[in-house]
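Reopening this one. Same input as before:
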Amino acid sequence: MSEATARAELYSELSKVIGVDNAGTLMSYLPGDEPATKTDLAATESILRAEMNAGFSELRAEMDARFSTVTARLDAFEVRMDRLEDKFDAQMEGFHTALLTQGRTYVLSSIGSILSTGALVAAITQAMS
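Same output, byte for byte:
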C-alpha cells in the first residue's frame, strides 16, 4: 500500500471518529513525503462520495420519519377539531332553538299584556260612562 493510500485511509477513518475539520487539521501536521496522485484523489473522492451518500440517506430517513410524525399529529389534531366543531354546531343549534322559544314567549306575553291592558282600559271607560 502506498503512503498516499495509507494517508487517505487514515484521513477517512479520522473523519469518522473526530470529524472532517479536526481530521484535516491533524493531517496537516503529519509530514507528507509523496505528493498525492490522481489515483489517491480518486480514492478519496470515492470515499467522500460514499460517506456523503450515507449521510444524506440517514438525513432523508430521519426527515421522512419526522414528517410522518408531524403528519400523524396533524391528522389527530384535525379529528379533534372536527369533534369540537360538531359539538359547537350542536350547542349553537340548541342555543338557536332556545332563542326562538324565548322570542316567541316574549311576543306572546307582550300581546297578552297589551290585550289585558286594552280590556282593562275599555272596562274602566265603560264603567265611567
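So the earlier flakiness isn't reproducible anymore. For the record, The mean pLDDT is 90.
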